[in-house]
């Protein structure tokens, strides 16, 4: 086991107050059929040798001095966007996946930490992955981060999955760093190309019909899961409504039911709404990201919801850990913890207070 990561917690979800096990499942997430057709072949529309070389160059960054960028051309990056966009649109808005799979939360351009996650969890296709959004902004290497993720999506479309986060939206990443990085290193036109790609990302995933995953959370408008399937793409993120809530809402212990969100966007929902939703849809767990949590993961509503955040030492300001949740083929869940880099360097390990209220904008 990597010295900088630890399996901190292992548990099995319960269904109807009994231990829940679905028996032996496929080692590959199954092809999605709800609302979508066949998957695109893994490297259609892009030269396989070029794709492999792009992945190699991106991974080789870890052998360079810290902060060094991958050597990619604007044309190559546009190919990644165009090819992955086609795959996203061929797969439905609500992905139906099977365990085993590893789930990661916000990465926010912290490319070296993304590589640390793969070092521990296994580089694709060794492991299946689901990322919950917020790939860009805040960190210094959003381009490397999103390019590697898109490259893996193209290479392994049936094993590697990306959901949309609230930062995969032009009005947000225009402000929080990604626009400036694209403009500084390449062009504004490239940023617009990414915007077109982000507008095609799926927004939720259902694992073995028991774990519902999204970036933000629940919505008062969400009555049937088919509503997610039927959301139109490509689309920008609206200011209100179901899509907005799936990317922006937050759980809150401060009140039952629905309340206005302090972010000024969407809602908060209480433990009662989590329980009601799970019971209505015969689910065991909601898995989401979107908020900084001190240990990289945090339970809510009597372990009926879990928040996963995968960017340790977020923004270089907080001593939070990052986490990755592994779901095995019996739906046993375990958490691997990525310690803050500043702790690895022997810096102070004192944590800032108030993690539970921090917002991962």
TrEMBL record:
Keyword line: Hydrolase, Manganese, Metal-binding, Protein phosphatase
Q: Mind telling me which InterPro entries this protein's record contains?
A: Calcineurin-like_PHP (IPR004843), PP1_catalytic_subunit (IPR050341), Ser/Thr-sp_prot-phosphatase (IPR006186), STPPase_N (IPR031675)
Q: Which GO terms describe its molecular function?
A: metal ion binding; protein serine/threonine phosphatase activity
Q: Which SMART domains match?
A: PP2Ac
Q: Which reaction does it catalyse?
A: O-phospho-L-seryl-[protein] + H2O = L-seryl-[protein] + phosphate; O-phospho-L-threonyl-[protein] + H2O = L-threonyl-[protein] + phosphate
Manganese is among the record's keywords: yes
One Pfam family in the UniProt entry: Metallophos
One Gene Ontology cellular component term attached to this UniProt record is: nucleus
Record-linked PROSITE patterns: SER_THR_PHOSPHATASE (PS00125)
Tell me its EC number(s), please. 3.1.3.16
The residues covered by the Serine/threonine specific protein phosphatases domain are 163-168
Query: Belongs to which family?
Result: Belongs to the PPP phosphatase family. PP-1 subfamily.
Q: Which protein, by its recorded name, is this?
A: Serine/threonine-protein phosphatase
The protein's organism comes out as: Zizania palustris
């Amino acid at each position: 086991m990597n010295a900088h990561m630890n399996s901190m917690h292992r548990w099995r979800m319960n269904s109807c107050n009994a231990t829940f096990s679905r028996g032996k499942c496929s080692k590959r997430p199954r092809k999605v059929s709800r609302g979508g057709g066949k998957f695109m072949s893994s490297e259609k529309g892009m030269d396989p040798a070029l794709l492999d070389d792009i992945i190699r160059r991106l991974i080789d960054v870890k052998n360079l001095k810290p902060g060094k960028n991958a050597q990619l051309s604007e044309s190559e990056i546009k190919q990644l966007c165009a090819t992955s966009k086609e795959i996203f649109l061929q797969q439905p808005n609500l992905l139906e996946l099977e365990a085993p799979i590893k789930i990661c939360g916000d990465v926010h351009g912290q490319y070296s930490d993304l590589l640390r996650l793969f070092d521990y969890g296994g580089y694709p296709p060794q492991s299946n992955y689901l990322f919950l959004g917020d790939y860009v902004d805040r960190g210094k290497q959003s381009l490397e981060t999103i390019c590697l993720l898109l490259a893996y999506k193209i290479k392994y479309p049936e094993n590697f999955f990306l959901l949309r986060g609230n930062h995969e939206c032009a009005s947000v990443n225009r402000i929080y760093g990604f626009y400036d990085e694209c403009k500084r290193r390449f062009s504004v036109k490239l940023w617009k190309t990414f915007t077109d790609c982000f507008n095609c990302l799926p927004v939720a995933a259902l694992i073995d019909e028991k774990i519902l995953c999204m970036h933000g959370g629940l919505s008062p408008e969400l009555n049937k899961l088919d509503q997610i399937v039927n959301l139109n793409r490509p689309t920008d993120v609206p200011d209100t409504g179901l899509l907005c809530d799936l990317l922006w809402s937050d759980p809150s212990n401060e009140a039952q039911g629905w309340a206005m969100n302090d972010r000024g966007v969407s809602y908060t929902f209480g433990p009662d709404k989590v329980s009601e939703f799970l019971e209505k849809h015969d689910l065991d767990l909601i898995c989401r990201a979107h908020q900084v949590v001190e240990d990289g993961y945090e339970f809510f509503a009597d372990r009926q919801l879990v928040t996963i955040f995968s960017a340790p030492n977020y923004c270089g300001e907080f001593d939070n850990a990052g986490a990755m949740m592994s779901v095995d083929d019996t739906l046993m869940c375990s958490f691997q913890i990525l310690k803050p880099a500043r702790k690895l360097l022997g810096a102070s390990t004192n944590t800032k207070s108030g993690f539970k209220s921090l917002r991962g904008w």
